[in-house]
Predict the structure.
Amino acid sequence: MLNELIEKRKKILAESEQHKNRRNELNALASKWARERNTLNNQTREYVEEAQKNKELRDKYNNEVQAIKDERNHINEQANAFFEEIESFKKEHGGMRNRGLKELQKQIEHLEFRQQTEVFSTDKERELIEKIKQMKESVREQEAELEQNKEIKAKISSARDLRKQASDLHAKVTEMAELAQKHHDLMVDFYRKADKSREEADAAHKNFVEAQESADAEHKYFIACQKELRDYDKVISGLRKKTKKAKVTKEQKAVRKEAEHLFKMFRAGEKLTTDDILLLQRSKLI
């Protein structure tokens, strides 16, 4: 029975080692996933921070765009007021050309914008440039005619200055709008990166939890094996003590029997050896 218990203990010990090794492997794997999850979470925070920075810059430039637009519109209103006064003057003096300067200026601006933003064939672009040239020449001729009147000349000069200011502000609006769009695109890109790294962090966390739960299960098996080993050790130790005690008792009986036989020989006057006498003394028979 003792040998059978020892063999069973060996099997439990082997199982215990397997569970311990597997637990350690899973704990190492869980740590790896935890590190990866933490790295991805930090990366996500960095992406979100960058997205927020670009959002703030986008909003700042959009606010500047609106402020500059308001200023540009106000200046255009002032310029338009001068042009309306000029148009009224022209109507009062019927001998002058009837085509409005204000309308010509708008058409010129529209055609110049088309030239800058649209793609034309060489012939079409040449035709467009010629048309703009003719319209500008018409504006100069009308202005030259109007400038003969000092008051109107002053108004034309003021209107030109205002138009120049409005044009400069429009260029500034374009610049700020492009910056706003740039930071908007960056914001969207960083938010997309944040979403991707957050998904990867969630996946890493899921793997971490699975590995940790498996490691905990292996640890429980290991603890159960350790308890079983202690139980086996108690039983085996008890059996060994019992076996040893039984062996000692058996040996003692054999010695006692031998001693009694020698004592009979002693009483019969037979000659005994020194060892025989020592055995009788140990057995307290003499």
Notes: The chain has a mean pLDDT of 83. The first helix runs from residue 2 to 92. The helical segments are 2-92, 101-117, 122-146, 150-267, 274-282. DSSP finds five helices and no strands in the chain.
